[in-house]
Amino acid sequence: MSNGFSRIPSGIRGLDEMIKGGFPFPSVVLVAGTAGTGKTTFGMKFLMEGAERGEQGLFFTTLSEPTQWMLRYASQFDFIKKEYFGNEVKYEDMGLLLQREGYEELLDFIDDKIAENMPQRIVIDPITVVGAFFEEEYRLFLFELTNLLKNWQAVTVLTGEINPGEQYPAQISYAVDSVILLTMLEEEGTRRKYLEVLKMRGTDHTAGRQPVTITTEDGIVVLKSRF
Amino acid sequence: MNQRDLQFVEKIMEEIRGLRNSATLVFNTTFTQIGKTNLLLLKGLLDIEQLTGYFIVLDRPHQYMSYLLHMHKVSQENLWFIDSVTHQSGVKMELSDRVEFLEGPFHVENLFKTFEMINDGKGKGFVSMDRVDFLLVDNIATMLNYNNIEQIEEFVISLKAYIEKYPHMMGGVTIDKESHPELSEILLEHYDYMIDLEDLKKDVEK
What is this model's ipTM? Predict the structure, then answer.
């Protein structure tokens, strides 16, 4: 316990030292970034950390990607243990539901899957896709989703795509407890990746961009943190 | 619930089967598992042991546990709720003969008045205390958000005294000992047994 919150380790090497030991439990965390900054890798590492600790994980994809795709993606990383899939980490595809049903049915689906699996760690990847399907009701959906998630005993990581010109997905940021930004900047002809904690409710956190790298062994690693 | 969960429930029930008469039990688990632990305990008590009891809700409105039990096909025929959360949560209080609402977690001492009211026949549809086999209390550390440690100790003692009035009744509370050492000490001092569920789970996984 720290500052009255129970916390769970994020699994991201170097991040927990920046946020007083881990994510407050329960809470909803937005991990936002442009393409290729490691959002899915972040989510997967978070679930694998839980699986190692005997916690149940639940991964919702909004992209209609079959389990085989996920397993293929997983095969490039040493930290992802395939034997956890279907057991400690359950995979749920929401793509078809998004195309065919309304936002209320989507919320019911998420609620039912959480009740069925009782996860301590949840990832929804990427949440911003939902905005394209329920444009009018997207804000209402996000409000109801975050309320729903906060009532379960779990930490949820929502990943969000940042559009060009956007600093972060503002529509979601107001509703979540924490916002972590992953960015890629061109410096001296090289693209470098950074992680920044924009907000974390009830937590003094390291401010400013921290350089990160993505490795096959550990996924995202924070290279240098000023804490 | 998977096969491992069901084996775990069986194991917990084996542990507590012989202890039932007026016993007060503390179920120690990690804070991430408390919600699931309560579900598993209710599964064991209601479905496997076929007992009758009350679940005292301290953390989230009772609808969450009721929904979980429904999703996991656990019969709620012999379960009633005392809900201390909904009053202040903004969730609509839907009156029924399966749930009684307390004014809020600040007034959990009213629990015993509620039980007396039920015994006096004022709580229509509620099972009277002489027919109750168990009182299961939600994550007791939640009370720390609303009460000081002395008030909680008073509640812990009152609950034990109440359970001892009924020879067939068992009382249980869940807690994460590591996160709340002071409260755990109080529970250990006053209650009969502490069951370490993480140790039991390891036995099942062997």
Answer: 0.78
